[in-house]
Amino acid sequence: MGAGGQMNVSKTENDILKRVCVSKPPFSLSDLKKAIPPHCFKRSLIKSLGSFFRDLFIIYTFYYLAANYIPILPWPLVYVTWPIYWFAQGCVLMGFWLLGHETGHHAFSEYEWLDDAFGFFIHSVTLTPYFSFKYSHRSHHAHTNSLEYDEVYIPKRKNDTFFTEFLNNGPGNVFTLILRTTLGLPLYLFFNTYGRDYEGFANHYLPQSAIFNDSERTQIVISDIGIIAVMYTLYRTAVTQGVQSTLFLYGLPLFVMSGFFITLTYLNHAHPGIPHYDATEWDWLRGALSTIDRDYGKLMSWVFHDGPENHVIHHLFPTIPHYHASEARDAVKPMLGDYYKWDNTPMLKALWRDTVECIYVEPDENSENKGVYWYSK
Question: Major place of localization (predicted)?
């Protein structure tokens, strides 16, 4: 059984790393939509509010327990329980953030103004500029895996020697992984790190940023006002309750959330078996299909509102709410066939593997599809 078991494991790993099909799909977006039960496209405000208040209840419960009981524990237990709180609260904040992301796609309710109101609140309290992210993220969905126009996680090319040579080794991989998971989100929001190249300065807080057009700049100011209001509240909290208390109860859980944001989004878009396309080959449908569904277990799925395991269907139909996403995904999987990528590799193992394997992209040397680029190292 030992040898047979190893063969099964090896086959599974080969299947996970197998490249998806890159030829023109024999189905259209309309064909996929017809395969999905119509009720999957219906947004229920009651269900969305249930998820919203569920997360708020858990966040407040964790906060109350940490604020009132951890400080009175014996000192050896304090050193253990604070990190547990930071991790648990950071996970729930990430799930809460994902609800805000859903509102930006108008998947929360039938009323776009209400979606924006809830999204503005959720993303502001997690220090993400709501409208700014909504607009840049919209561009990501419009140009997924386009080497020229995708908005984020643009892969490096082989001629970028800083990445392909200087950082393409053990210490370089460790440095890249640590930098990405600790500072990746603020670097992206402030400096557009990992983002598309713009002629002007790209920043998610400046209304005049090259990311936005003239009709969006007023809402960027509104996003900034939300962030400033939360920052001022944190300042007043630090003055009255202490810097350490504010850092421990809010700052470090938010730091964990930031790490999860980068980890989840990176792993849904980087994989050895997923292509990128240049302008000669890219089209919207193949771009949307060039994403990955990830399975991290039932608990993580519940906390993250089934987001990581339904990323492909999310790119195909972003207005499908999270409580219908799994059903919609299962409805189209038979039609997708070899165009679909599912990976159940444990999160940390997948993060390290894809950090090491996904250094740069280039076309296969002997392939006729010179506009199709694959990750290499």
Answer: membrane
